[in-house]
């Protein structure tokens, strides 16, 4: 998705060099950890077997994330603090069981296309 | 290669709008009125603001506070999801605001005319931070009714900051408040949108 002039997916760094947690997309502020409260997560790949070393909470997250969910939503549904969800999601990300998407950044707030999409969405509520 | 993203399903990007205001001003009500589901609740365990929260291994050793936030979701299209966060407006929670305000599209400040002073801190905060905001005057029964111009004066709002009446219990009314904010934010940070 090219909504800004900022870095795009082409700037992904080879995983051999840096573990590609979540693309930073030209955020101006220091990152606040691997997952923002509204980073989106989606379960990917085949369901893990019993030998994957996952806890029940991990499996609950994978079930919830069959559709894209934010860290905040996962936390609310599992009734766990958001910080805990971040750690669990990190485990799943490392095992390539979830894919993640960082939220719109301060820089993205200059993108007129985004404002139009939000307006259209609100009007069709 | 292992992280080839072209093989992965696309994920929507999340946008957030903050809903601020004093206790009982109608934050949770507004979030619930426009969201897909009833408001959800999440708790953030936050460390003292001087401590970087990116280093999770250090968290246990620091002073922590738990802050509950109500929020709701509006799926806009395949590309974007909008989240509304109703957040405590007390000054002792400013460090929550700092984290939430980062990257926010803007904020709605709910003003309750029975306790107008409750929204002073929020107005000050968003002005200082440069976050676009609008003021929505929630109309409670038996509350003193003021003209919008009077509220604007009382809050010392700049003329360009939109101020509207609302009934946070009504979806249409709450949606109009959000539309006013989106247009205002676009005007300030991108270009006017209709
Ligand atoms: N009359 C009226 N009551 C409202 C309105 N918005 C909220 N309320 C009521 O005010 C009370 C507090 O609202 P709530 O959303 O919990 O406030 P919060 O503390 O800001 O989250 C609830 O009983 C609501 O039903 C409004 O626009 N008009
Ligand atoms: Mg509330």
UniProtKB/TrEMBL annotation, chain A:
It comes from the Bacteria. InterPro entries: DUF742 (IPR007995). This is DUF742 domain-containing protein. The lineage of its organism: Bacteria, Bacillati, Actinomycetota, Actinomycetes, Streptosporangiales.
TrEMBL record, chain B:
InterPro entries: Gliding_Motility_GTPase (IPR052705), Gpn (IPR004130), P-loop_NTPase (IPR027417). Keywords: GTP-binding, Hydrolase, Nucleotide-binding. Belongs to the GPN-loop GTPase family. PANTHER family: ATP/GTP-BINDING PROTEIN-RELATED, GLIDING MOTILITY PROTEIN MGLA. This is ATP/GTP-binding protein. It comes from Nonomuraea corallina.
């Amino acid at each position: 998705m090219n909504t800004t002039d900022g870095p795009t997916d082409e700037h992904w760094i080879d995983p051999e060099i840096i573990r590609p947690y979540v693309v930073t997309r030209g955020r101006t502020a220091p990152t606040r950890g691997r997952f923002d409260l509204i980073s989106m997560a989606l379960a990917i790949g085949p369901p893990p077997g019993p030998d994957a070393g996952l806890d029940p909470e991990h499996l609950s997250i994978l079930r919830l994330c069959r559709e894209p969910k934010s860290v905040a939503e996962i936390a609310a549904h599992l009734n766990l603090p958001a910080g805990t969800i971040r750690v669990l999601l990190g485990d799943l990300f490392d095992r390539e069981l979830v894919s993640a998407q960082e939220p719109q950044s301060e820089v993205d707030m200059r993108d007129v296309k985004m404002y139009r999409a939000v307006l259209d969405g609100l009007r069709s509520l | 290669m292992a992280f080839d993203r072209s093989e992965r399903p696309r994920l929507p990007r999340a946008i957030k709008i903050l809903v601020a205001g004093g206790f009982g001003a109608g934050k949770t009500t507004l979030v619930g009125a426009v969201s897909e589901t009833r408001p959800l609740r999440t708790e953030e365990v936050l460390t003292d603001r001087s401590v970087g929260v990116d280093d999770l291994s250090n968290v246990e050793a620091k002073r922590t506070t738990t802050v509950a936030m109500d929020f709701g979701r509006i799926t806009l299209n395949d590309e974007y999801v909008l989240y509304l966060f109703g957040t405590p407006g007390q000054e002792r929670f400013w460090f929550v605001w700092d984290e939430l305000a980062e990257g926010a599209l803007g904020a709605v400040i709910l003003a309750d005319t029975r306790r107008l002073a409750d929204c002073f801190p929020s107005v000050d905060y968003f002005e200082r931070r440069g976050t676009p905001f609008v003021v929505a005057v929630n109309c409670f029964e038996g509350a003193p009714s003021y003209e919008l111009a009077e509220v604007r004066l009382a809050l010392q709002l700049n003329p360009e900051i939109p101020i509207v009446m609302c009934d946070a219990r009504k979806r249409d009314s709450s949606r109009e408040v959000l539309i006013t904010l989106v247009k205002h934010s676009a005007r300030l940070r991108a270009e006017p949108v209709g």
